[in-house]
Amino acid sequence: MASGSAIRGSRVGAGPMGEAERGDTAPRRRVTYWCANGHETRPSFAIDAQIPESWDCPRCGLPASVDSGNPPPVPRNEPYKTHLAYVKERRSDEEARQILEEALQQLRARVSRGEVIL
Fold it and tell me: pTM above the 0.85 mark?
């Protein structure tokens, strides 16, 4: 015996959603982008929208451009640098020795005055 409602699985106010109820869609154009791996992506934009120069490839995540013969290069990933690596970029070995010697002199002076107990 079949029992139940004929509107099971639908919500109140649901009905056919055709162009007549939603209105006409805005005129669109498709733009083709290519990434360095040769993937082609064709997003659509409104006719009056400004077209971006680059677009992220949905397949590999690389940047893509509209020039198929000259896609953007693969971005270089810089390796993680420690704080010490950044300090070494800013200071020469001689500067580091001078700074260390000044710090040691100040520490020795504080120890001799009894401010620091080792």
Answer: no
**Amino acid, single-letter form, for residue 46:** A
For residues 47 and 19, the model is more confident at: 47
Number of helices (H) and strands (E), helices first, in the chain?
3, 6
Burial of 75 (0-12, 13-18, 19+ CB in 10 A): exposed
Place of tokens 């710090």: 103
39 in Cβ contact with 71 (< 8 Å):
no
Contact 28, 43 (CB under 8 A): no
Residues in the chain: 118
Residue 44 neighbours by CB under 8 Å, 6+ apart: 28, 29, 30, 31
